[in-house]
Amino acid sequence: MKIVRKIEDVREAVREARKSGKKIGFVPTMGFLHDGHISLVEISKKNAEFQVMSIFVNRLQFNDVNDFNTYPKDLERDFDIAEKGGVDLIFTPDDTEMYRNNLTTVDVDMLTENLCGAHRPGHFKGVFTVVSKLFNIVQPDVAVFGQKDIQQAVSLEKMVADLNFPIKMIIAPIKREIDGLAMSSRNKHLSSEQRSAALSLSRSLKKCEELLKSGVTESSKIIGEMKKVIEEGKPDKIDYISIVDYGTLKDTTVAGDKTVIAVAAYWGTTRLIDNMIAEREGNSLKCV
Amino acid sequence: MKIVRKIEDVREAVREARKSGKKIGFVPTMGFLHDGHISLVEISKKNAEFQVMSIFVNRLQFNDVNDFNTYPKDLERDFDIAEKGGVDLIFTPDDTEMYRNNLTTVDVDMLTENLCGAHRPGHFKGVFTVVSKLFNIVQPDVAVFGQKDIQQAVSLEKMVADLNFPIKMIIAPIKREIDGLAMSSRNKHLSSEQRSAALSLSRSLKKCEELLKSGVTESSKIIGEMKKVIEEGKPDKIDYISIVDYGTLKDTTVAGDKTVIAVAAYWGTTRLIDNMIAEREGNSLKCV
Q: How is domain A185-279 classified at the CATH fold level?
């Protein structure tokens, strides 16, 4: 595995790989890797022969400078995990390599008003901008994003379509612990009691799936039932339980052909998110 | 010369050209071609072996729907001029090929507040967005923009740097009529009297060059002298006479190392623009 810090070195390595006929897969990360990240690399491997991973904590997407400064970092461990996971090239630039008096921003209107966007002003604009930059630096054939950050994944998919990036976008299913908890670097902040209470999030999605399969599609009714399930886990706060249209990420009163069901809640100061995509295919309903 | 209307067909043709070892040059236009456009192709030819030109009237960059609807079009004539000019591939998509419920925009902050940006809200955002799309569709090695639209050229140069587009940007010098008038499709709206009066614009830039060469650098003084020259041409209105820093396009009180001198004025309802870049190189001053 090669580790580079300069844009020119990425381009050089990618050019070489492409010359030898390889397709380029790309997984952008902010480091502090866990199995969830490696599951994205696994999917990338199925679609491309040369795996690029970026590790860059992007200050543009932080609302809170303190949150940025204290973002966990362990590059040596990351390199180890990435190499074992089959990454061929790590790109880990410093801030000045990426931003030199940057004046340019990319935005995807409307998709960022709801869900997590509501209390993270500017966050998604920072994501779109850095991902556009990374796409132009790496020039991958395939890019893989996790469904875990569903709003990010859907809006990046829209950005790629709107700006005609010549890239195949793949949204990878959520990687879960054996008991169903969505993997997250935040899970380590949970006490064992909170850890087991937080399972109510994934259980609420299971409940939603059952209701949809039994023909209940009215959002307010489903949300009411999901709320009961989450409350069994006694969260300190439920941030949102939302049923939104996949294409617009706007609240929908009735679950339709392709719908996102997303939840966010706090245990202590730890905010956890989870979601499910429900898609009607003919007469059957697929929930992932 | 090949003419295509579909994004996939551009990609196919560009892929073929690249396979045979050719570099791709790109000149985006809104059609109604004149010698100014062909001068951009000429420069592109010096830097690449396969010339792509887009002809697309981009509604996103029009503030006025009427202005958009009445924008002059003559595709058959354009094809003829482009072919004679050595274009290899014309991409002329319709609106639905380019925009399908577009939600994504690209913006370059600050560079668009002054000069022509002041009274064209949203115009440059529309330009940045469509050029980003065209860059991703054509994937050129080299793109050529005219210095005539200096604000567009400088801010696109900044966009390319900020978003790391792997493209060499070339700003081509203004193509002028023999008497010095900057070429423009708008010149045909001028009466012969207005036509000769409008020469005061390019004369005012000559005046500026003389002043700079004689060591006068104070903007207010230079602007005062330029104003006298333009007023000799009795314009119906002087829109602006601006001396701005090349990197920020903000007004500067003293002409510095790289400075843009830009003018805009009306004769009748025809708005004409012209400009000059003054660059200090060692002890000498280069004005283009």
A: Pantoate--beta-alanine Ligase; Chain: A,domain 2 (3.30.1300)
